[in-house]
Amino acid sequence: MFIEQGIHSGNKFWKYLLGSLFIITASFVGQLPLLLAVIGKTILSGASYPETNEGVMRFFEPNLTLFLLLISFVFAFGGIYFVVKYLHRQTLLSVTTSRKKVDWSRIWFSFGLWSVFSIVTTLVFYFSNPSLYVLDFKPIPFAVLFIIAVVLIPVQTSTEEYVFRGYLMQGFANLARNKWFPLLMTSVIFGGMHFFNPEVTKVGNIIFVYYIGTGLFLGIITLMDEGMELALGFHAANNLIGALLITSDWSAFQTHSIFKDLSEPQAGVDVILPVVLVYPLLLFVFSKKYQWNNWKEKLTGRIDVNK
């Protein structure tokens, strides 16, 4: 069983605290290229040093900014691999899935399903509200964006999944010896991780319903499917298609996407609808395809492992 794979006598919860600190440190090291680039530009061009996160996001050309931001996740993923192998004495596979090998068909199914949904809904919104969007396609910048996004966004999303649905999910299972606590804690922490996103300032705290709800959805499909494959595919599609299709002046990532959203952000059905309607529909599709059962035990049951 997936969540139980991190439970053994030598795998105490303090190791997950230490490992998390190491992963965070690795991520900070990965942010040094961005810091050095900002300092270099201020020295060479005489530009004022940006004092806010928004200032940093707009300090460079969008593709360069995106590249420098995503590099930190390469370092963070390296940190995950290191602590899993050397601190916890586990394989990366053991925090990925309970199967004998990664099921790529699950990743691709989830990725394809959410990609199609995202593209179709974006086009529906564009054609039904043309005044709120502008076609902003620039071939060369978009081509560069495409290369950066295809290579590095899956690294970013996979890193987040390995931290929350893999590493911390098993870590909290070691602490609580049940399944509902790891599911709840990883969802809340995942939502809180987005606290400094510009969307929070623009929309308000109601957006945490979406962030925490998304974390809960990803946690549920991980526990029900006994592995992270579906979560890996969904998260990659969500961020990759989002970066390529649409951007706005207030979003976390500024990209040379195909469309630009001109509307003013506000808390509405677009925040609540995914959590109360879309995610339950996806759960239904996944449950039928992969024949899930025994929901209560898999999501809330106790873990009785003597190792």
Automatic annotation (TrEMBL):
Tell whether Metal-binding is among the UniProt keywords: no
Start and end residues of each CAAX prenyl protease 2/Lysostaphin resistance protein A-like domain? 143-241
Q: Name one GO molecular function term.
A: endopeptidase activity
- What is a single Pfam family found in this protein's UniProt entry? Rce1-like
Which regions span the lipid bilayer? 21-44, 64-87, 107-128, 140-159, 180-197, 203-223, 230-247, 267-286
- Extract one GO BP annotation from the record: CAAX-box protein maturation
**Known PANTHER family for this protein?**
MEMBRANE-ASSOCIATED PROTEASE-RELATED, PROTEASE
Name-wise, this protein is Abortive phage infection protein
Gene source species: Flavobacterium commune
The organism's lineage? Bacteria, Pseudomonadati, Bacteroidota, Flavobacteriia, Flavobacteriales
